[in-house]
Amino acid sequence: MERITAAAESELWFTERMAGTGFQYSLQVAEVLHAEVTPFQRLEVFRTTGFGTAMVLDGFVNVSDKDEFFYHEVMAHPALFIHARPRRVLIIGGGDCGVLREVLRHGDIDHVDMVEIDERVVRVAERFFPALTASNGDPRAAIRFEDGVAWVRDAADASYDVIIVDSTDPVGPAEGLFGATFYADCHRILTDGGLVVVQSESPLFHQGRLAEIHRCLRGAGFADSHPMTYPTVIYGGGTWSSSIARKGRRLGDGVRWDDIDNRPFTTRYYDRGIHTGLMSLPGYLAPVLSGL
Amino acid sequence: MERITAAAESELWFTERMAGTGFQYSLQVAEVLHAEVTPFQRLEVFRTTGFGTAMVLDGFVNVSDKDEFFYHEVMAHPALFIHARPRRVLIIGGGDCGVLREVLRHGDIDHVDMVEIDERVVRVAERFFPALTASNGDPRAAIRFEDGVAWVRDAADASYDVIIVDSTDPVGPAEGLFGATFYADCHRILTDGGLVVVQSESPLFHQGRLAEIHRCLRGAGFADSHPMTYPTVIYGGGTWSSSIARKGRRLGDGVRWDDIDNRPFTTRYYDRGIHTGLMSLPGYLAPVLSGL
């Protein structure tokens, strides 16, 4: 008879399955740091063995220490370096505060409204993600716990230079952030030459949804729009997209290339070459913009 | 008592774990199409539900229909458009034949030697991956089933313009393809201005290994080298790298931008903007080239 000579160490893995893709991925969890049900969603925080701390919303990983910089830099910097002089920025969602941190690196910014529906996401991020939330006390930032759809509906015409929609996927609390009415309001409250950036799902698995986002953006009056793709681990499928659109001008007009090269802050992903790549449309994404 | 009213459909998932990363991913398998043990490795072919046909070598996914184009295009086109007039190309490994297909799209190419150690990989690819192996009958291509390390050691000085090392990871049959001696031979058998491209692992998880590859490349005499990162699903971790190095010239010298724009074949990923992005060094990769 065999004797068990040492207790096997148990392994805990969190698995995220992307519906309809035949793909799932797992992160090894060292410790469950936090779990609660907020008024809006289930919120968990894990200490993982390979990705640092990770936040999970309704079963989908929202952010991890390891790869957050790809997403947050792409959501913030291309738009802010295309705009001639961005002063006022609106962030919808963005509860982990990583986009807010990147936006505030730009010295020209006078004011940022961040409108997150779920205060608990911000409070939990402040506790477990100090690097992401380091700028939350910046006097230029106003963090408001309100409905982003209503905020945009009620905002004055031409009141923002850049809008960043850092939302979860278009099911659950973020559903209203993917519609034509919302984009039309974004267009209305932007100044001329202003830009909107939206999280727009997987370019490999959700091309139909991505195409629909661009149809809606152009339908809402935006003069130009483009999908930007970048690496992600935690959003599944290896590559993810954000889409950028501009009011009244082309995305390539007046890009501040010298300011990109001479930016007075450090980036881990974004630079001139990456900007160029982000604004390129690879052949496999051509259907997304065809017929617009 | 409950009655079972329908048989639950069983689900088959193939899981690949990246050692030491706390990350694993899974593809849903609809059918095992083929399985054998070759003289060199275990070889399986799956029909997956989300990625088409996938080939697995020693438990690691080597290629899938869904995302093969990212890898194969990056392995072939940047080097072939940097070189002023590439005539003779050597592919080491490359058994799925996708790199060969991309190389042969270039009309200037006179001759390609593809040296794959495991004939079974090519034969199985010819059976299950018709799109990848469509160019195998091209009269410019010589497919040889030999040891790539010996081939490079025995090749004449200055006998190739471009060498592409499309290998598996540096364990098992490909181990000899990641060393200083091999790179020195590559340098010797390249013409002046010639380029080598090597599969160089994950930029997020294997940065030490990637840095070592660049130390070896520069140590072997290459005048310039650069890591190129691109999306992958099946290589795990969302982003992967290939590294490119050049004999006697900088990688940016004489890039044939007009030929990139006017290429007489279709690409799904590579173009001018992607080339620019691939040749950019994001901040998080700076340690890979520091001190070289």
From TrEMBL, chains A, B:
Alphabetical UniProt keywords: Polyamine biosynthesis, Spermidine biosynthesis, Transferase
InterPro entries from the UniProt entry: PABS (IPR030374), PABS_CS (IPR030373), SAM-dependent_MTases_sf (IPR029063), Spermi_synthase (IPR001045), Spermidine_synt_N (IPR035246), Spermidine_synt_N_sf (IPR037163)
CDD domains membership: AdoMet_MTases (cd02440)
Primary enzyme class: transferase
Presence of keyword Transferase: yes
Pfam families assigned to the protein according to its UniProt record, in alphabetical order: Spermine_synt_N (PF17284), Spermine_synth (PF01564)
Catalytic residues, chain numbering: 166 (proton acceptor)
Catalytic activity entry: S-adenosyl 3-(methylsulfanyl)propylamine + putrescine = S-methyl-5'-thioadenosine + spermidine + H(+)
NCBIfam families: PRK00811.1, speE
Similarity annotation: Belongs to the spermidine/spermine synthase family.
Purpose: Catalyzes the irreversible transfer of a propylamine group from the amino donor S-adenosylmethioninamine (decarboxy-AdoMet) to putrescine (1,4-diaminobutane) to yield spermidine.
Protein's name in the database: Polyamine aminopropyltransferase
Gene: speE
